[in-house]
Amino acid sequence: MKSIALTLSITSFLLISGCAIKSPEYVTVYQSRGVIQCESAGITAADSREQLSSKGVGVKTSQCGQLSGVSFISVCGAETSDVVIHSIEAKDIRLAEMMGYSLVDSTQETGDEQEFDIIPCE
User: Fold this and answer.
1) Do residues 104 and 96 lie in contact, with contact meaning Cβ atoms separated by under 8 Å?
2) pTM of the model
3) Which of 80, 84, 85, 100 would be 48's cystine partner, CB 3.0–4.6 Å?
4) Phi/psi of residue 98, each to 5°?
5) Closest by alpha carbon to 30, among 109, 91, 113, 112?
6) In the predicted model, is pLDDT for residue 17 greater than 70?
């Protein structure tokens, strides 16, 4: 009888505890890949993800992109519009910003918001 009562108590506790666990919320951040035309391929998405993870930032997804609506001159030595984009846990946004990442703010008006074209990572 004690065994059944103990089993029911543990099962009830686990079911109630499971309901209290919240899934993390995610935000999107981006940073220039640091590509310099004719000179440097910049940072890869995997390296950028590793930098964030090594500082304790929870990264869900990573992808490459280019800023749209922004012009860059095509000449050796100039920067490009290449960026790395990550979906990170919202609780880690301050740490990511301290590392040089910018938040993609979906509440801004479309005219002010940085938009991206997703491209394959090289």
Assistant:
1) no
2) 0.73
3) 84
4) -65, -25
5) 113
6) no
Percent of the chain scoring above 70 in pLDDT: 74
Distinct helix (H) and strand (E) counts, the chain:
3, 5
In sequence order, what E strands does the chain have? Answer: 26-32, 59-68, 82-89, 102-103, 115-119
pLDDT of residue 111: 47
Query: Phi and psi dihedrals of 82, rounded to 5?
Result: -70, 130
Tokens of 30: 């981006």
Contacts of 56 (CB under 8 A, 6+ apart): 92, 95
Dist. CA 103–CA 76, nearest whole Å: 29
